[in-house]
């Protein structure tokens, strides 16, 4: 039940926030650590609420951005071949679009290792990435991408406008939902965007999270859970207009929002259609939120029951993909090294460390092989990187052929 308010107010409109889900004490989802760092580990309360005024779903507590997006932020966008293709397609779409002028300037917020801007650079087009996390920004620079190691917000955006002129496209993938200070983002876009330019961003869609009970999309970095309705309201509040929405299948289901200055473009029919579908589904209605919270508890109970049974039967269970999302699963469900031996992950920066909060060892993918020093393949692999299931299952067909089984928990717990 959405509780009456007062405690916390909406980060966008200051309206009353009703909390509907408490996922407990949680660590920083991307802070992998050594044994020695465990005593100083940072924790906060992970809970979600919905605004009764503008419908924006958001975290109740905000984690300081410098704790999350640091020099050694470990997430590398180029780690998935599907995502590399997705971003190359996106870049070419911008370069061919009607709103990119003859000498376009493309700005990206959260450019990470340059996975999208690399393609813009290869086309010889002016560009700039904003990326506060030092090491991934450096990876992009080594690819020839121009990066400013900084947070995008009103003052930094205004500086770029003064020095380099207006941007035709400002793009962000899986980043705007990470930024509580949305007003400063829109003011920055206002300072930097050309009159006929577009602000385009894509993030996990609340509609998919509810439908799939993918509660692991909820963690420190994911501050907002957008809908077309809440983004439209936010855009209008800050002098813009939502002119298009597009469904994307990546990362478990996303929406891409295209925003223009008010009156600069005619909204596509998809905007009104999506908003109406959300209203009809009651995506942020108290009943829906209550049902979602109950579904989350059911998934937790089913998953822990399955893992306990497998342990009693003496089966070997490991996990695949040390995702930020999995911090929520391991800590909310109490998955420790007694239930899950280790997690394999291709990211060198994560290997050799422990996962946040649950402290499962992260090992390189070589351990997940018939020649593994553990004595071959495990019996079961819990797929934390379920959003990359197709890519991973194809790559690991040999595990399945050898009798191994995947454990999935989205949209419900099952063994395949
Ligand atoms: N766009 C990439 C993708 O979709 O794979 C990276 C997404 S990653 C989950 C989020 C990125 O946003 C991180 O690299 C983080 O450092 C960056 N970030 C966080 N706050 C930011 C801000 N205010 N301005 C620019 N980048 C930011
Ligand atoms: P993401 O779900 O946030 O994109 O994170 C995916 C994580 O899974 C990241 O740490 C890289 C890892 N990974 C693998 O270990 N193997 C793979 O084949 C893929 C696609 C990802
Ligand atoms: Zn609000």
TrEMBL record:
Q: Which PANTHER family match?
A: BLL5978 PROTEIN, TRANS-ACONITATE 2-METHYLTRANSFERASE-RELATED
Domain named Methyltransferase putative zinc binding: residues: 10-69
The protein's name in its UniProt record = Class I SAM-dependent methyltransferase
Say which domain of life the source belongs to: Bacteria
Q: Does the keyword Transferase apply?
A: yes
Q: Write out the GO biological process terms.
A: methylation
Q: A single GO molecular function, which one?
A: methyltransferase activity
Report if keyword Methyltransferase is assigned. yes
Q: Which keywords does this Swiss-Prot/TrEMBL entry list?
A: Methyltransferase, Transferase
InterPro entries in the record: Methyltransf_Zn-bd_dom_put, Methyltransf_Zn-bd_dom_put_sf, MeTrfase_14, SAM-dependent_MTases_sf
Residues that span the membrane, as ranges: none
Gene3D superfamilies annotated for this entry? 6.10.250.3100, Methyltransferase, zinc-binding domain, NAD(P)-binding Rossmann-like Domain, Vaccinia Virus protein VP39
What positions does the domain C-methyltransferase occupy? Answer: 250-411
């Amino acid at each position: 039940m959405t509780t009456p308010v007062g405690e916390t107010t909406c980060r966008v409109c200051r309206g009353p926030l009703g909390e509907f889900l408490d996922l407990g004490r949680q660590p920083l989802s991307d802070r992998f650590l050594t044994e020695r760092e465990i005593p100083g580990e940072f924790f906060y309360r992970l809970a979600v609420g919905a605004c009764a005024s503008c419908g924006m779903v958001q975290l109740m507590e905000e984690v300081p951005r410098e704790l999350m997006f640091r020099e050694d932020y470990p997430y590398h966008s180029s780690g998935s071949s599907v995502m590399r293709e997705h971003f190359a397609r996106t870049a070419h779409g911008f370069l061919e679009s009607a709103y990119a002028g003859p000498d376009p300037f493309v700005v990206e917020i959260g450019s990470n290792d340059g996975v999208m801007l690399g393609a813009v650079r290869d086309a010889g087009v002016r560009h700039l990435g904003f990326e506060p996390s030092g090491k991934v920004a450096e990876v992009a620079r080594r690819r020839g991408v121009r990066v400013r190691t900084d947070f995008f917000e009103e003052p930094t955006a205004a500086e770029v406008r003064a020095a380099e002129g207006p941007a035709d496209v400002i793009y962000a993938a899986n980043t705007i939902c990470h930024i509580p200070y949305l007003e400063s983002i829109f003011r920055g876009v206002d300072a930097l965007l050309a009159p006929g330019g577009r602000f385009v961003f894509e993030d996990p869609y609340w509609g998919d999270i509810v439908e799939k009970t993918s509660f692991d999309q909820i963690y420190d970095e994911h501050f907002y859970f957008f809908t077309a309705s809440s983004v439209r309201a936010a855009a209008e509040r800050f002098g813009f207009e939502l002119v298009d929405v597009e469904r994307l299948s990546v990362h478990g289901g996303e929406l891409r929002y295209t925003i223009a200055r008010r009156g600069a473009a005619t909204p596509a029919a998809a905007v009104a259609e999506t908003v109406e579908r959300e209203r009809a589904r009651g995506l942020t209605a108290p009943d829906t939120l209550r049902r979602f919270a109950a579904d989350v508890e059911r998934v937790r109970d089913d998953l822990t029951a399955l893992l306990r049974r497998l342990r009693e039967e003496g089966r070997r269970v490991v996990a695949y993909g040390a995702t930020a999302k999995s911090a929520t699963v391991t800590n909310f469900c109490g998955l420790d090294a007694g239930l899950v031996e280790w997690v394999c992950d291709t990211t060198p920066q994560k290997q050799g460390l422990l996962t946040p909060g649950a402290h499962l060892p992260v090992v390189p993918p070589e351990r997940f092989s018939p020649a593994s020093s553990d004595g071959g393949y495990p019996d079961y692999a819990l797929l934390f990187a379920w959003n990359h299931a197709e890519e991973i299952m194809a790559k690991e067909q040999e595990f399945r052929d050898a009798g191994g089984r995947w454990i999935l928990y989205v949209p419900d717990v099952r063994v395949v």
